[in-house]
Structure formats: C-alpha cells, structure tokens
Amino acid sequence: MKNHSEYLNKKKDFIRENSSLSENFFTFYTGLFELQQKAYDALGEVSLSFESCGKDNLPFLKIEHLKLDSKILDVLNILALDISSEIKKTNPGMDFSAFESSFVTDATDLLKSLLAKDYSYFELKEKAYKLDISEILFMVHNIFKPLMIKAAENANLKIEKEDWLRGDCPFCGYLPDFSKIVESVDNKRKLHCSLCESEWEFPRLQCHVCGNDNQETLGYYEYEGTDYRIYYCEHCKSYIKALKIPKLKEESNIDLAVEDIVTGFLDSSMMQKGYVRC
Question: CA 219, CA 99: separation in Å to the nearest integer?
C-alpha cells in the first residue's frame, strides 16, 4: 500500500496554488490515510478468503465466495470507529452510531454489494443507518480499501492487455478513479482501481464506461501548465481524469489515489459541462 499521507504532504504547494483542498479537508484526508495505513499494517499476513478461476475467468475475485474471518472483522471494525471519529472532528453533527453498531453483522453484505455495484442495497440501508447513501458509500469504500489492497497484493495477479479489455478492475471488478499515460512505455494508458488500487492497461482511444471507440465522439482536455488531462465520451457523457507521466519521471513514484483527491477542480469543470463521473 502506498504511503498516501506522505504523498499528500508532497502536494502541498500544488494544493495551495490551485485551492484544490481546504485546510480542513487536507487535515481530514491526512488523518484518513494514516488510519487506513494502520489498518493495513494490522491485517498483517491475513488474506481475504475467496475462490478464483484464474486469468481466464476475470474478475479474479469472485464475490459469492467472499468470507471475512474474525481477525479481519476486528481490524475493520476498529477502522470504522476511527473513520467516524475523524469525520466528526470536522462535522460534529454527524451520527454514525447506528452504522457502527451494525457494522460487524452487515460487513460481508456491505462488501459484496459494493463490489457488485448494487446501490439499491445501500439505499435500503439509509433509514437503518440514518445516513445518506453517499455517506454510507464513503464509509464502506474507505473501510474496506486497506483489505482490498492487501488482497490484491497477495494475489499478485499479472494481467496483460489482451487478457482484459474492460473498464472495471480485473482483480475486484470495481471502478477506476483515475488513469495515467506513461510516455516511457509508448504512451500506454493505465486505469487505476479506486478500491484495491490495481492498475491495468486500457486502450487510449476508447471509453472505459461504454466501450465507444468512435473517434468523432471521444476527446480530451489538457489542464494548462500541468500534466493533467481529462478524457471524455460524447456518447455516454462520462469522463475520467488522467496524469501524463513524462519519460524522466518514475511511474512508481506517482500516487493516483491522492492525485484524485487533489484534482477536484477538474471534476467541477467537467460536471459544469454536463459530464458525469462513473
């Protein structure tokens, strides 16, 4: 797992110049990343129990076979309590008590529903948890992220471009949050999973959401003076942010999870134009 809090601190000057994060949000995400790192470390060598049919039957992780043992649940329950406490530092009116009391019981269903992108399940939980669906999804996503990163690392799945030509993650099946264009490897485009942080190659001239490859309805914007781009599709009105990594920069030093957090101004720009993030 990358050291997200350290990378975030390295972006301080960029954040100030672009007003991309308030001081409160900077402090919040620094704390959140540290809590996730603590949970990741606490998981140790434990791995998520699942069955897989290998690279010929992707995504690799099969939702129906997921099992969370008591050690995993203990670590995640502590993380759930810690994240809710971190949120309440800046939003003292938030009440996570119903979510906290039900988390261990609901944990497996929460993870399975997240991976399946079954948002109707979370809508049903709004009343029980006394939280909006966006608040539930934020909690669930950030609680399970260290576990999913650990599981992906333990699986050590090596995916070639010809093995997987879809816009969702070949390991867990979840959605990408960012992408990168790597000059040193022939400008290959890679997508980054927002949940397990796996990366996989994806065609540059194709929409990751609807698969559209009609060049007349695809395009990109460049953010002036930076290496940021936004790829968009006129067919489904979706977009994804990207970072172009010059040949002289080391690809492994880039933390796309943090790049997503500090480029909210790009999201605002695209939403104003009528595009949606999927």
Answer: 42
